[in-house]
Amino acid sequence: MWSNQSGLDSFRLFPSNDDDTKPQLGFSSLDDSPQIPSPLPPPCIEVLPSQVSSSVKPTLESVNLDGLTLLKGRVSTHDVFALSNSDLVPGKYEGGLKLWEGSLDLVKTLRSEVESNNLSLAGMKVLELGCGHGLPGIYSCLQGASAVHFQDFNSEVLQCLTIPNVVANLPVKSQSPGADSEVRFFAGDWSEVHRILPNLQTDNRDSNPSLGYDIILMAETVYSISTLPALYELIKKCMSRPHGVVYMAAKKYYFGVGGGSRRFISLVEKDGVMVASLIAEVGGGSSNVREVWKLQFKSLDR
Questions:
Q1: pLDDT 10s digits, 216-235
Q2: How far is CA 175 from CA 140, 148, 172, 178, 253, in A?
Q3: Would you kindly state where each structural domain of the chain is located, as residue ranges?
Q4: Could you list the residue ranges forming a coiled coil in this record (predicted)?
């Protein structure tokens, strides 16, 4: 089993003055005042690399994944959103500036799948949902994916963190692996963002089932019970049929918000369209086990 890496975040339930170098326990919410209706989600837009933030510059740090070194930026929620001590503000900020443990679990799993010939990313169309730092998508680029599209709830996360991370990690010479991947960035809520993702045409899926993404990646996206149905429906709209695959890294249970990998897998199994298999389990020395799951369509006629 893999051990926890320093510099990673677990979800935390209570605020802390610590920075993101110390593991936490659950989600923190900025405001404990009585609940008010959630604000409307931000509009769904494509964020161009030229729109990278000029005012917030991430500090780059190395992350060693058993011999594979990637770079990840560090920026604060205060600098980007004028928030402090918060991992989640529903409808405004969904934790994309943190590097969660599941993101690195997912990169390790993808690497293991590639090395064991269970997966080839070369020439694949890849979508990373809730990308944040975007390390799984970046790894896909380095493995020769033809297209990697990064999605996050917040355009600010893409502008201040994801795009700089991609630029820092990917080679610039055209002959290098990953340099020729089509890389694009999309912001928006899971219930609407499919409308701007390219090459989906979901209304015509039955007549052209090969549309969509070959591989969908997501790490730590199943924390909130209320968002699970929208996330699952988005996956079905985006996933190429019949051979598309989803790799999902998550904790079994997220304290304070109620979601988790098993809750999401229960939703998938109840729907009956996909089959899910557990391919990695990460103890990490804590009671909350982390998992990596693989989802595929059950049969060619669905």
A1: 999 999 999 999 999 999 99
A2: 16, 18, 9, 9, 43
A3: 46-297
A4: none
